[in-house]
């Protein structure tokens, strides 16, 4: 009977669809584990295809490509004597169906295949669309040791783990693709501890790391002993291959010989900021943009977007453009320049006054007899969008939009204007969180960030009243409630799905709540056309929250 087991945990950053590149990462991690004397290496969920692969797996050519890659991995790993086995995760077809699967590959041979039983179909997950649920899984017999290999959602409820325990599993090895949400790391730890204490078996939880469109996978893989104590921990927001060595005691129970100290996983604003940085970095790099271009207004949203971009990509890949109009204040021009100096990017200025005059002249006959209104304000925003997209087309830099969740909730943004761009790093951040992050970043330099130490956002940008500066003396609060009030109402409506009556009962003015509800409902058509952005909250706009644009139900009574 084998009484020692060396398990490597491979927390990798794959690219969805890059099967060849992902295979190289898989083999490199395997070689690392082999050099450290591993018996087996555990990967995160669907590491070969990248997660989530969505409708790619419905292409027969993609599935063939995966099979060819698995055959190549078998050949390469089988050529090294006494190398570790792989728990390789990939979409896989067997018994006439397509599954989210894990393959035990040992000595270059596929020994066992297991499929995910519990396919999630909520929030950002839509696996029932593309995969068939596997049967309740049996244990995996590995060199005389019975392993339970539930996949991600299989451990979020007790049934699969309980079944594997009754089948004689000795250790649970769990591949995961669990994206970041604020404060979710503690939830994962508690959930896995619950499963461990229910079955009395050790469990290793291997999570993906990296950005994939709206989703950011934050890593933070870990393992627990059978009594729920921490055995091994990997860092958040970084790739790692971590060894853990296990022994069987006299009662046949496995425990970790070399328990590692808890790896630093950032919390609170630190975790949110690092999620923004990783999400933007991977979106830009994986889509092969040379950098980003940002319209700098002198306001807080563009300043924070610029700071995140510099931390993600480096100052040399961030192009800042100030586009003043006759309504742009001297303070805003100065603040934008100071912010650019702090970030060491430089900044250029392109005045939109000529564009405003040209559009005014062109549209005068069509607008005859009509007074100026929000139409002219929107033309300013759209003129800026044209300039940024022109720079993007000419030089290849992606336009980074700067709107936040508060604005997108109530439609306080201009289609084809300030909403124009390829990615929105602040899309799931309420305005009050934007303020908090600016203050936090001025006092911290997060791990792995490429921007300068110290203050990067001028204090006046944080303290001055927010304004779109599209007309004289304009302030956001001319049109909206104060942001602390607005954000609490929005949080209750969006994340809490609470009614007007319930929100009023929590202490808010009924007239304001009704106004916010109407704005939220009416802005759905704008949000449907917005660029993707980093998911932070449990109810991000897009895949998390899907409402019809044409909608006769307003729910303004209860």
UniProtKB/TrEMBL annotation:
EC numbers, comma separated: 6.3.5.1
Keyword Nucleotide-binding on entry: yes
Pfam families cross-referenced by the UniProt entry: CN_hydrolase, NAD_synthase
UniProt-listed PROSITE patterns: CN_HYDROLASE
Pathway assigned in UniProt: Cofactor biosynthesis; NAD(+) biosynthesis; NAD(+) from deamido-NAD(+) (L-Gln route): step 1/1
Enzymatic reactions: deamido-NAD(+) + L-glutamine + ATP + H2O = L-glutamate + AMP + diphosphate + NAD(+) + H(+)
Binding site for deamido-NAD(+): 378, 407, 526
UniProt: L-glutamine binding residues: 122, 178, 184
List of residues binding ATP: 295-302, 402
Residues in CN hydrolase domain copies: 5-248
Active site residues according to the UniProt entry: 45 (proton acceptor), 116 (for glutaminase activity), 152 (nucleophile)
Gene3D superfamilies: Carbon-nitrogen hydrolase (3.60.110.10), HUPs (3.40.50.620)
Alphabetical keyword list: ATP-binding, Ligase, NAD, Nucleotide-binding
InterPro entries assigned to the protein according to its UniProt record, in alphabetical order: C-N_Hydrolase, C-N_Hydrolase_sf, Gln-dep_NAD_synthase, NAD/GMP_synthase, NAD_synthase, Rossmann-like_a/b/a_fold
Molecular function terms, GO-annotated: NAD+ synthase (glutamine-hydrolyzing) activity
Uppermost EC category: ligase
Family recorded in the similarity comment: Belongs to the NAD synthetase family. In the C-terminal section; belongs to the NAD synthetase family.
Xref: NCBIfam families: nadE (TIGR00552), PRK13981.1 (NF010588)
Function in brief: Catalyzes the ATP-dependent amidation of deamido-NAD to form NAD. Uses L-glutamine as a nitrogen source.
Protein name as catalogued: Glutamine-dependent NAD(+) synthetase
Source organism of this protein record: Thalassospira marina
Organism taxonomic ancestry: Bacteria, Pseudomonadati, Pseudomonadota, Alphaproteobacteria, Rhodospirillales
Designated gene of the protein: nadE
């Amino acid at each position: 009977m084998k009484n020692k087991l060396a398990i490597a945990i491979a927390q990798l950053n794959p690219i969805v669809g890059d099967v060849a590149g992902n295979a190289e990462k898989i083999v490199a991690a395997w070689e690392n584990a082999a050099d450290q004397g591993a018996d087996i290496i555990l990967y995160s969920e669907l590491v070969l295809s990248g997660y989530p692969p969505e409708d790619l797996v419905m292409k027969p050519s993609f599935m063939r490509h995966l099979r060819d890659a698995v055959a190549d991995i078998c050949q390469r790993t089988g050529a090294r004597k006494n190398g570790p086995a792989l728990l390789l995760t990939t979409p896989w077809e067997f018994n006439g169906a397509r599954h989210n699967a894990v393959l035990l590959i040992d000595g270059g041979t596929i020994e066992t295949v297991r499929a995910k039983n519990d396919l999630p179909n909520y929030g950002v997950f839509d696996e029932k669309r593309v995969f068939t649920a596997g049967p309740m899984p049996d244990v995996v017999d590995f060199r005389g040791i019975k392993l339970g290999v539930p996949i991600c959602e299989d451990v979020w409820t007790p049934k699969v783990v309980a079944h594997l325990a009754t089948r004689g599993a000795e250790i649970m090895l769990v591949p995961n693709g669990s994206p970041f949400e604020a404060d979710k790391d503690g939830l994962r730890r508690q959930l896995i501890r619950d499963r461990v204490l229910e079955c009395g078996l050790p469990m290793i939880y291997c999570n993906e790391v990296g950005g994939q469109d709206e989703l950011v996978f934050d890593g933070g893989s870990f393992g627990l002993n059978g009594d729920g104590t921490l055995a091994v921990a990997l860092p958040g927001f970084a790739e790692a291959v971590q060894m853990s060595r296990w022994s069987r005691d006299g009662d046949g129970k496995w425990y970790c010989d070399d328990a590692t100290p808890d790896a630093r996983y950032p919390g609170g604003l630190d975790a949110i900021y690092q999620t923004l940085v990783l999400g933007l970095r991977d979106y830009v790099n994986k889509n092969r943009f040379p950098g980003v271009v940002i319209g700098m207004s002198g306001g807080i949203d563009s300043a924070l977007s610029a700071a995140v971009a510099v931390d993600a990509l480096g100052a040399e890949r961030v192009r800042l453009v100030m586009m003043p109009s006759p309504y742009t204040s001297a303070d805003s021009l100065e603040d934008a320049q100071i912010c650019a100096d702090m970030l060491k990017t430089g900044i250029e200025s392109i005045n939109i006054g000529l564009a405003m005059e040209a559009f005014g002249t062109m549209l005068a006959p069509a607008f005859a007899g009509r007074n100026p209104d929000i139409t002219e304000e929107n033309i300013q925003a759209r003129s800026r969008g044209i300039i940024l997209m022109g720079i993007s087309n000419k030089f290849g830099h992606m336009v980074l939009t700067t709107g936040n969740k508060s604005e997108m909730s109530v439609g306080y943004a201009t289609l084809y204007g300030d909403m124009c761009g390829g990615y929105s790093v602040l899309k799931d951040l309420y305005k009050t969180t934007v303020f908090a992050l600016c203050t936090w970043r001025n006092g911290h330099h997060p791990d792995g960030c490429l921007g300068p130490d110290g203050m990067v956002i001028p204090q006046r940008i944080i303290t001055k009243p927010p304004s779109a500066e599209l007309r004289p003396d304009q302030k956001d609060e001319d049109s909206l409630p104060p942001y602390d009030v607005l954000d609490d109402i929005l949080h209750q409506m969006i994340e809490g799905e609470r009614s007007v009556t319930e929100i009023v009962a929590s202490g808010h003015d009924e007239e304001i709540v009704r106004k916010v509800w109407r704005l939220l409902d009416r802005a759905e058509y704008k949000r449907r056309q917005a660029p993707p952005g980093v998911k932070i909250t449990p109810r991000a706009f897009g895949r998390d929250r899907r409402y019809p644009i044409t909608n006769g139900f307003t729910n303004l009574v209860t």
